Amino acid sequence: DSISNVCSHQGIAAAVRLPEHTLADVLRPPEPLIAVAAGVQDPGNVGTIVRTAHAAGASGVVVLAGGASPFNAKAIRASAGSALHLPVVADAAFDEFVERARASGVRLLACDQRAEQSYLDADLSGGVAVVLGQEGSGLADGVEQACDARVRIPMASAGDSLNVAATAAVILFAAARRRGTFAG
């Protein structure tokens, strides 16, 4: 009770050394699938993006400088342990990520509800980085302009967008399905 920062803890605690990963770790696979959190401020959303990326078979997550830490206690809880199994790069410089991604043949796909192209029609093959922005303001102009394409998720209702973690789930699982990650 005295060391937990939550009211309803599980009754266990541990001290662990967090894994340290680099951009090379997430860009290493032949056709990497990467989730990029660009300015995502809510640690719960960052942790859920990590958990979703892990479940979708992504090669890693990059959290750009200025966003919530993926190793914040709330983010770790939301990742349900995935932050300890999937390469996660925290506090990455966007310019360096773009340069290294391009050198590795990875295309940057901006998620933007104003985009003309649906993710259903987008090329999700090969190396792809799914770039997700802050829920309230979306992607910063410089980030969006650096991306190779913009996609949206078609919605039946008049809502203007999905939660950023839900957006990550839709697009990462679509990419995984098209890549044949899952049987059936």
Task: Characterise this structure.
The radius of gyration is 16 Å and the shape is globular. Helix 3 links the parallel strand 2 and strand 3. 31% of the residues lie in helices and 16% in strands. A 6-stranded parallel β-sheet has the order 3-2-1-5-4-6, sandwiched between helices. It contains 6 helices and 6 strands, in the order αβαβαβαββαβα. It is of the alpha/beta class and 184 residues long. The termini are far apart.
Relative helix content: 25-40%
Radius of gyration: 16 Å
Give the termini separation.
45 Å
Question: Can you write the helix and strand succession as a string?
Answer: HEHEHEHEEHEH
Mean of all residue-level pLDDT scores: 92
In terms of structural class, how would the helical and strand content be classed? alpha/beta
- Outline the biggest β-sheet: 6 strands, parallel
Lateral strand order in the biggest sheet: 3-2-1-5-4-6
The portion of residues forming beta strands comes to 15-25%
**H/I helix tally:** 6
> Which stretches are low in confidence, meaning pLDDT under 50 for 5 or more residues running?
none
| Envelope shape | globular
Number of strands: 6
Give descriptors for this structure.
alpha/beta, 184 residues, six-stranded parallel β-sheet
Compact overview of the structure:
31% of the residues lie in helices and 16% in strands. With 184 residues, it is α/β, with parallel strands linked by helices. Strand 1, helix 2 (43-55) and strand 2 form a beta-alpha-beta unit.
Question: What is the strand and helix layout of this fold?
Answer:
Layout lengths: L22 H5 L5 E6 L4 H13 L4 E5 L8 H7 L8 E5 L1 H10 L3 E5 L16 E6 L7 H6 L2 E3 L12 H16 L5
Parallel strand pairs: 1-2, 1-5, 2-3, 4-5, 4-6
